[in-house]
Target: DUF1993 domain-containing protein
Amino acid sequence: MSFYDAVVPAYLQMLNSLIGLLTKAEAHCAARKIDPGVMLGSRLFPDMLPLSKQIQLASDFAAKGCARLTHSELPSMPDTEKTFEELKQRLAKTIDYVKSFKPEQFAGAEAKDVTFPAGPDRTMTLKGQQFFSAVSLPNFYFHATTAHGIMRHNGVEIGKRDFLGAN
Amino acid sequence: MSFYDAVVPAYLQMLNSLIGLLTKAEAHCAARKIDPGVMLGSRLFPDMLPLSKQIQLASDFAAKGCARLTHSELPSMPDTEKTFEELKQRLAKTIDYVKSFKPEQFAGAEAKDVTFPAGPDRTMTLKGQQFFSAVSLPNFYFHATTAHGIMRHNGVEIGKRDFLGAN
Model:
């Protein structure tokens, strides 16, 4: 097993399942005549980020995680999405980007330094494995699961099997 | 880097941060005179699991993940916790259990078969890396993040930095 096998499939599994969750949420809005913008603007608490931003951040942590681990140029994805369709396209674009990496690019990456922003005016440097396990992946799952929680809280009929991509 | 380094620190980081989240939720209940049982019984939707069960499941996925990856006997932790204190003890016990594993026990585990229950009457077999990345870790983060979401939705002043263990 290579480090690539520890990194890339984990991001792809969840990016794909997020497309499935958004598809069910979109259908739920259509069936109940709910303004899609209301669902995408929903939050679990007023000072938390809304559903649309949770999706954008999950996308960012996957794409930038791969870029930082392979010392590639960071992808630029401005957060302009306002509809379910645009958010699903953002996820599809992120999937294509993550799939564009080759296993060779991750060779030895677990032991190489990764420097990343850790707040507005400071950076942190960790070994690749530690950056992946302690920073990138928990952030990625945090936003993916919070997106699931917002949709679930709003009555979308989804569950952990959808989250895991098993449905 | 060994497979141990990819597995054990990830579980420990979040088990520790869950203790921190529960400590803040407990203080919030005391300050606002909220019955702790109400907070621990809160859900994001009526057919979702309550906060106490999200913590128990996060504990289970960490402990059983380590056991299954090392082909050890599964630990028995009956879900009897009813208070913040008992749930924090459950997490502390899980941390001790996860810490009891030695790196040697994980040697080669990424390529060994792991058989685990995948529903009430069937099992699934995956290689260790795949079991960890596609099943154990996403389930673990799912329950940890959902626990965070329930507390956050109920007004506990926590955020992603607490979730990541940075506070």
Observations:
- Strands of chain A lie at 113-117, 123-127.
